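note to self — DONT lose this again. spent like an hour looking for the file last time. sequence + predicted structure for the chain T wanted, 555 res
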Amino acid sequence: MKIRKTNLLKINCLIIVLFYSILFSQPSKALSVKECLRFPIAPRTLNAAASEYASSGKFGLDENGILVFDYGTAYDGLGKFRNPYFISNYANALYRDYLNTKCQDDELKNQFLMQADYLMRSAIYENDMALWQYPFKNDAFNLPPGWISGIGQARIASVLVRAFGMTGDEKYKKVAYDGMEVYKHGLINGGVVSRDKDVTWIEETPSHDGTSYKILNGHITALSGILDFAGLTNDSQWEDLYQRGIAAVRRDLPLFDAGFTSYYSLGQSGIDRLVAPRGDYNALHVDQLLWLYEHTEDSFFLEWASIFQAYELNGFTYTAKGSVDPVNHGPSQAASLYGNKYWSHAQFPTWIQVDLPEKSTVEGIWIDGNGEKASPRDFSVQAMIDGQWKELSNIKNNQSKRVVLHWSNPVSTQSLRLNIENDNGNKNVALQSVAPLISKKRYAAITNACNYKIRGDFHYNVNAVLDGDDRTSMTIYCPGWIIVPNMKNKNNLLISALGPEDAVIEIYYSMMIGDWKPLGKYRLDDLKKIRLPKNRFIEIKFGNELTEIKSISLS
């Protein structure tokens, strides 16, 4: 189920629990405080308190105390709906808040069990599978009312396992296992998995005609839920599914590279694929790849996290001949943000220009209109080369919302300009994305998942150490690391950090991510200027004794 953007960006730290000690053979009785605290908080529990989550945006509690989301007039006037996935989020937050009181707050406990009881009662059985269905049509993936989600099933099952552990009542355990049956069946048999040779995709939006949409964020979220359930139950039968799911991401992850952001899914053909907006689902992909790296220690996931993060911080700047609404829909709104973000202009001919932070080899351009009528009909693309504009493409009678141009001879340039003669009848061209496609992969500084946080639009915690601004710094939330690209092979490293005098930072270097060689261990006073061997990447490891890293610079 698709999570709202505001909630996605609050998920700043994926809580990884490696060992679970509760077995299903425990006595059927309520837990003591000591026993209660043995249960782990669910992975991907939101940072916000349960009460805050339940009162944010369109969320609320109905007259029975069950979480509802107000869809208003959408989906034929669905109104306030008990969305099972959102309820599982709320239940997990309640459970976390309850544990934080050392299991003393009975109100939190009762509210958690109220959500679990509703989830248990609302399950619909088909072919011995407990299903949590959605009563509206999923237009994005053409699913009829009654569809289920590969994300929600495991998430809900794990809520019920925790309710079983809290009460000892076997009914929770039974429904939890029945809900997990969907992961044993393919799409055409009513399940949620697509098997292909040695890999398995878990479908966020399973189509029972067999279509595999391969939604990346949904698949990885489902893997965390399956891993959670396996650990809670000490049931090894889910290990194979988990490993096949990891293999699916490893095999197909390069296909999610759109050249300027990541794709949301692979289910659509070629040019029609859904993209992951920058600052939204693309940032979530980075977050999830960091989780995969930390859990698997496979540097492949770390490298792609750095590539996708580079799309977040591409450094493009936009200017235009004019804008209908310069404040809300100026040229910067064509930066692949999507949603209600777009640049528009109603006076033709017009143009919009993209300037890159440095001269780069550009092999094409991606253009997305805000609807077919608002897309450019007759237009050309120019690049600034040797101080002059050179025409690279001239398109007539385009009627498509999306245009992706690739040039047989890539050009070295720092500026592209899209000249638009007219639109397709809107009398106001509106563009969601004008994105240069750069030939060479770029990398961005990245940190571990716990420290990967965003502070407003594209102000990432880790980038505060690289922005050259003495007023900003990276807050340390947990022990971790920073990977800093050094593509220009600079020789000197300078780090400024805050912490006790005996704090130690370890530094490693490599020519490729993952092949790390130790450079040394340094106290804070020794970080003024460190001589570097030849390298392309630097890894900086730190403990929780540090409070801030003020700056990192290369020279």
